[in-house]
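does this look right to u?? adenosine-5'-triphosphate version
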Amino acid sequence: MITLQNVSGGYLKKSIVKNISLTIDKGHFYALIGPNGSGKTTLSKLITGVLPLQLGSITIMNKLLQQYSSIERAEMMAVLSQEAAVEFDFSVEEIVSLGRYPHQKGFFKSISNYDKEIVKDVMEKTYVDQYRNKLFKQLSGGEKQRVLLAKALAQEPKILILDEPTNHLDMRHTLEMLQHLQEYQKNHELTIIAILHDLNIASLFANKIGLLHHGLLVETGDLSLLQKEEKLQQVYEVAIKTNFHPVIAKPQISLIPNKTKQLHTNLDYQINTTKNFIHIHFPHPMRTISNAVLGEGLYWSRNFCNFHVHYNYNCSNPKQDILNWLQQAKISTYDTVGMMTAVILEDKSVIKENIEGIEILSVITAGVGNAVDITQQHQNSSDKIGTVNIMIFLDAHLTDGALVNSIQSATEAKTKVFTDLQIKDPNTQTIATGTSTDSTLIASTQNGESTTYAGSGTKLGKAIGKVVYNGLIEALHNYEKRKKKI
Ligand SMILES: Nc1ncnc2c1ncn2[C@@H]1O[C@H](COP(=O)(O)OP(=O)(O)OP(=O)(O)O)[C@@H](O)[C@H]1O
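got this back:
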């Protein structure tokens, strides 16, 4: 619908943007991204016709831009620019009504009932109707931004060009504005071109992205562009890590500040065991992966707790229970991983070793009351509290993939223990592979070179295998000894 072919343009004779070719489909949201001064605003001014082309052509709906009259352009396109701060003594409603101006006919342009309806509607949708009689200049930056969006929408444009539309807006209003625009985009087939500095916002709302650098369009394409770590690092000259949004399938980017000196070189830990909990504390956060009750998934944590509960514990809200117990014990609820067990905590095993240069610590509690053979179809009740809780701490630097690999290594070693000790699933009388509610955690200091593998073919994987095997045997031995005493 909008096609730019070899477009160059700028100020006076100087070309700021050079040789740009791109296509924006009707009803799409096209995000223009790029560092400060890369030419985004200049390119948007070429598209609106505010700046003349030096070279190339711009076609909108199969007609060259210069063939549209200025009135036709004003009807077709609305612009929300950074420079739009009007400081006249207009009320909010008057400013929004100005958006209807290109549509008003006749010599004495006057506002029709239809115009009034549109103005009312957009004011409501952008939540500015509450300020309708207030003077525009008396509004906050964010409120002004919403009024200017209302004015642009009142124009009922086919194309909306936004220069940093979420400037001044807080999180709620940023989201509301863009969701609202998305609705317009769908319902009115509105084409949006938005200059955005926040790449994560661009990812949430754009269909297509264009990356400008030194006036050149270095990449244009779908959201996969936002996963090109090296390209983005090179253009923005900043260290980043791309990943996915935790809830929806959109890329998200995290900034990495200049590497600060690592404050610790080994597993400096403190452990405190009471009747109610084991608390392992590290002075610095560790990168973790676990299926713990609190802090599950990928996380950063300094505190690792395993709480003792009665074997008939009512599991209706285990996470909240752990939060309450942490508060009672005056342990942080923010950077803590929490597990539960019905096993007597004194029977834990703690092994700290240096295996081929890898410092590794394991803290394991174990019982086999609800052992299960995962390969058999018999239905076990699984609302009992975890009996094999494995916590492994490593002085290493693991990628997310290596963390997953470590869990796999720990699980293989655990299953080997069940096989070697001939622990059976009581329902099927076959060798069990674990118990029905086991928890496993891997925590890594993230010191040194990062590694992507921690499977059975690696030094790291074998170190995990060794401490899990030995630690679990010791913990089960303690458990059996206590059972015999009872
Ligand atoms: N009116 C002007 N006259 C001359 N040069 C200008 C003018 N406006 C901008 N420039 C120059 O054009 C270049 C690109 O500016 P532009 O505003 O298009 O970048 P941008 O990518 O929108 O930047 P930002 O992210 O900082 O808003 C800059 O070097 C700027 O100094």
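DSSP finds eleven helices and 24 strands in the chain. idk if thats expected tbh
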